[in-house]
Amino acid sequence: MRFSKKVCIVVMCVVMMAANGIAAYADDAPSSWALGQVTAAVNENLVPQNLRSSYTQAITRAEFCALAVSLYETVIGEITGRVPFDDTDDLDVEKMAFVGIVSGVGNNRFDPGGALTREQAAVILSRLSDALDQPFREQAAAFADSGSIAEWAVDSVGRVQAAGIMNGVDDNRFAPQQPYTREQSIVTILRTYEITKSEGSSNMGNQPSGTFTVQYIRTNGYVDGASYPIITVIPSKNELMQYYENSKDRYDLSPREIAYSDSASGFIDAIEKYSDSFFASRYLVIVLLEEGSGSIRHRVDRVDGNGDVVICRLLPEIGTSDMAEWHIIIELDSSFKPGQFNAVFIDEPMQ
C-alpha cells in the first residue's frame, strides 16, 4: 500500500502529538512511584505547563506558589489581590501572599528562587487547607527527628502527617530541611485537592480519610496459600475480640511480637484502647499483608473516598528474605462509609 505525502505528514503529526502528551513522558518522566499521581494532577489542570518537566529536581519557593495558586483557584476562584515583594514580581507569589498562605524571608524579600524545604512545604500546605476551608486536624508530629523541625513548622508538620498529605522518608524521619522536589510537590497538591473535592461531595456522605491513625503490627503466623491482602472491617468491640479469637492461633497474635506504633508491644496491647466508646463514632479497618520480615516496608499513604487503602511499598527491600504477616490497624471516622475497601499498592523509593 502506498501513502501520499499528505497522509504521511498527518501520521507524523499524530505521532509527535502523542509523544508530547501526558502518557509519553519519554526522557523526562516522574519517578515510578509518582507517575500515576502526577498524571492525575496534570489531568486536573493543577500543574502549570512550566512545571511539567524535571520532576526530580528541587522545587523553588515561587514554583510551589504556582502549584498552590492552581489548586486554590480551581477550588475557590480567582485571587484578585496582590502583596508585592522587593525581589520578585511573580504573580503567583503575590497572590499567595495576599491570601496569607506565604510570607517573606525578611526585609520585604521572598527569595523566589530559593529551594523549598520539606518543613516550608508543610506550612504552606497546612495554611492552604485552612484557606480552602478544609483544615487538617491537629496532631503532634510523630517522626524520629521531630526535634529537628523548626518551632514555626512543627504544628504544620503534625497536621500534614495526620492528613496523610506528607509522610516521612527512611527510618521514620521527616528530614525537615531537605529540599522538596517537583514531583513530591505535585503529589501533595493532588492529595490536598482530593481531600477538598471529596469533602465537598455529597456522594453518600463519604469523605476520604485524610485524618486517620494507623498501627503496624508484625506477627509470625505467615500462612502459605493465604490470599493476601485480607481486609476486615471491625465496627464494634465484640467483633474486634471475635477477630482476635478467630485469628490468634492462625496468625500467632501473641503480645510478645513487636508493634510498630508508639504505645503497643503486640496485637493484644494494640487493641486494648478500642473500647465501646471508641466504636460509638469510629471503626477499624484491618489490612493483613504479606511482607518481608526484615523491616517495615510499607506505609498507609491515604484512604481515598472510594475506599481504596493506598499503601506505599518502600524500596529497595532490605533485610532478610523470609516473609511475615503484618496487621495494619486503621482507625476511621464513622461518617466515612464506602461500599467496600480495597488495597492499592504503589512503590516508593527509600530516600
How would you describe what is shown here?
With 351 residues, the protein is α+β, with helices and mostly antiparallel strands. The chain has two domains: 32-199, no CATH class; 213-349, no CATH class. It contains ten helices and eight strands. The chain has helices at 5-19, 32-43, 61-75, 91-98, 118-131, 154-162, 182-199, 237-247, 267-271, 276-279, and strands spanning 213-219, 230-234, 259-260, 282-292, 298-303, 308-315, 323-333, 342-349. Helix 2 crosses helix 7 (182-199) and helix 3 (61-75) packs parallel to helix 7. The longest helix is centred in the middle third of the chain and has 18 residues, at 182-199. Residues 1-26, 200-208 and 256-264 have low confidence and may be disordered.
- List the strand order in the largest sheet: 2-4-7-1-3
Separation, N- and C-terminal Cα atoms = 53 Å
Calculate the mean pLDDT score and round it: 80
* Percentage of residues in helical conformation: 25-40%
Order of helices and strands: HHHHHHHEEHEHHEEEEE
Count of structural domains: 2
Main beta-sheet annotation: 5 strands, antiparallel
Q: What is the general shape?
A: elongated
* Number of beta-strand segments: 8
Our estimate of the beta-strand percent is: 15-25%
Rounded to the nearest angstrom, the radius of gyration is 23 Å
Number of H- or I-type helical stretches: 10
Flag low-confidence runs.
1-26, 200-208, 256-264
